[in-house]
Amino acid sequence: MAALSHRNTTFDELAVGQTASIERSVTADDLYVFAYASGNTNPMHMPGADVDQDGHADTVAPSLWVGALVSSVLGTILPGAGTLYRSQTFQFKGRAKLGDRLIISVRCIEKREKPRAVFETRVEKSDGTLILEGVGEIEAPIASVVLPKRQLPLLMLDRHEHFSRLVQRCRRLAPMPTAVVCPDDANSLGGVMLSMQEGLIAPFLIGARGKIQRAADAAEVDISALPLIDIEDHSEAAKRAVAMVNAREVRAIMKGNVHSDELLGQVVKKDGGLRGTRRISHVFVMDAPTRSDLIFISDAAINIAPDLTTKVDIVQNAIDLAIACGLTQAKVGILAAVETVNVNMPSTLEAAALAKMADRGQITGALVDGPLAMDNAVDVEAARTKGIVSTVAGHADVLIVPNLEAGNMLAKQLTFVARAEAAGLVVGAGAPIILTSRADNDKSRVASCAVAQLYDYWRQHGEPLLDVEAVPEAAE
User: Fold this and answer.
1) What is the CATH number of the domain that holds 113?
2) Which one of 138-152, 258-272, 436-450 scores highest in mean pLDDT?
3) CA 405 to CA 382: how far, in whole Å?
4) CA pair distance 239, 476, nearest whole angstrom
5) 245: which of 22, 149, 423, 452 is 20 to 30 A away, CA to CA?
6) Per-residue model confidence as pLDDT tens digits over 3-14
């Protein structure tokens, strides 16, 4: 049964002197939503505003947003459901700023001809500073109303914070020497320069000098101080990048304006390549607006139709990257079209086998369950409706797809429909391979470099680089 809302107070029940209040903090999301709803994009009301250029934020909450909080008390608490405004006056005594905790209160001061009533309205900061005062005349409800709590539609703001935290974490590390293969177009070279400015990589440019210089001129960036190895042929440029990893001149490779097959062909060569003990695989790291944590998807770019043996490596590679990015207890959902084993659907059989292999220690570092359909892998209510009892169902943060086509469509749907940001990394080789797409924006390229740095740190130290606040203090 749904939880019931506060029962309203009818006009006959309302008494002079009755009060009600709520508390509410001012958040950046509040300001963005109000700007969209009202059309008021005054820079004073935008998070991070520094209108007078003095180095200090000038952001204040719109006064009518503060006033709207009064209606939330009148309309939901006292008198509550069924209340309608007749008039409202406001005097603004101060300004509310981001982070302020506000106390919004109303007090009935007069009952007039039914159903009219008058309320004193006030908004104060938690320290008692008066922000707003006024008087509202309303029509109080005549009939008693008790309704289930209203579940508002999900509202998504196109903001991404997870990648910003990864980049911030990497600032504690020295830039990672990185061979960039053929950065001879605006997108790839722009991502290189921005990643370098963020302190993530120390790039070595490999490719046709003339093309790279023309791309730099077009982007109006100075590359004169960067090492540049002049190689016209794409395959030879990729071969040189791999050789630099083997010679320990760089610790990572970044794809520029070169086809993935040309780059990866050099990586997987038996002689002189970067083969490890596992099959290489690609992992998308997704920062989706509806998710409270990062989500990892594999494999959507390299292994077209992996068999069970390959999937074991894909799962372990994805777990390793998730741990490197800071997940303390990764939950891996092996995806299929259904959540039950069906002998006519090989992906469900392989999913069940992978889950059991994790139970037996053949896959380590995470909780693994499958088969799971997409809905019950990431949504608790969907898992509960299907009667699935699992520590992973509804909570999966690593999603293993049955084949490349499914993974590619899932990742791109999240990117272009759900407005997720995506970073991409090839793992399982002798060095992280930053495999960006031509459609990736600069933010995705920077995020991919941050993920590569964290993965490289984990490979070197055997433990993840955590946020400073997550590191326990040493015992005295």
Assistant:
1) 3.10.129.10
2) 258-272
3) 24
4) 51
5) 423
6) 445 789 999 999
